[in-house]
Design brief:
This protein has helices at about 5-45, 80-85; strands at about 60-65, 70-75, 90, 100-105, 125-130, 135-145, 160-165, 175-185. It is an alpha+beta fold. An eight-stranded mixed barrel has the order 1-2-3-4-7-8-6-5. A hairpin with a 4-residue loop joins strand 5 (about 125-130) and strand 6.
Length: about 190
């Protein structure tokens, strides 16, 4: 076999391996979404904790919808890196929908929460728990630096905060900037009528 043929076949094997690896990641992501949907349906039926797979350290607690953008996502309990790899996560120190206080839901800027950049003042966001549905209206958005800004979850302000890293098109993940979308309940009770 000539050197050119060896190089050709080495490149083909490497390309095949990369293709399989990329497909595997997409397949895992799709299977995870099916399992999350199944766990959410079980949670809606009995209000219990249902992990999407046995070794999961998270479980569905809500469903987030933005009708005009056709966003429909399961929200998991917790906002660690392991959780956010699969879905948006509810900050465990924040209020749950329907409770007094700030409900904080985080997501990655380049996947689940990339839509935040398109939200505008007055638009509707829905959060469904196993017990009720809540409507929130967007009141604004801002960029904050985590090094000098903290969200007071005990302030008693009834609001929804959707948080992601910023800027949306940053070449590297992380950094101190966060994009925060603020929304308030559409009615005094926040219930979806």
């Amino acid at each position: 076999m000539t050197l050119n043929k060896k190089i050709f076949w080495m490149v083909m094997v490497l390309a095949g391996a990369l293709l399989v690896n990329g497909s595997w990641i997409q397949l895992k992501a799709q299977v995870a979404q099916w399992l999350l949907q199944d766990a959410w349906q079980q949670t809606q039926q009995d209000g219990g904790i249902h992990k999407p797979w046995k070794w999961a350290d998270h479980w569905p607690v809500a469903r987030l919808k933005v009708p005009h953008l056709q966003v429909d996502q399961i929200v998991l309990e917790g906002d660690s890196g392991n959780v956010l790899a699969f879905a948006p996560g509810h900050n465990v120190q924040s209020a749950h929908p329907g409770e007094m206080g700030a409900v904080i839901i985080s997501g990655h800027r380049d996947t689940h929460f990339s839509f935040l950049q398109y939200l505008k003042h007055g638009q509707l966001v829905e959060v469904e728990t196993s017990f009720r549905k809540y409507r929130y209206r967007i009141t604004g958005s801002n960029v904050v630096d985590v090094n000098n800004t903290r969200i007071d979850v005990a302030a008693g302000i009834n609001q929804l905060l959707l948080v992601t890293c910023y800027p949306f098109d940053a070449p590297l993940a992380g950094g101190p900037l966060r994009y925060v979308v603020t929304a308030i309940p559409e009615t005094s009770s926040g219930l979806l009528l």
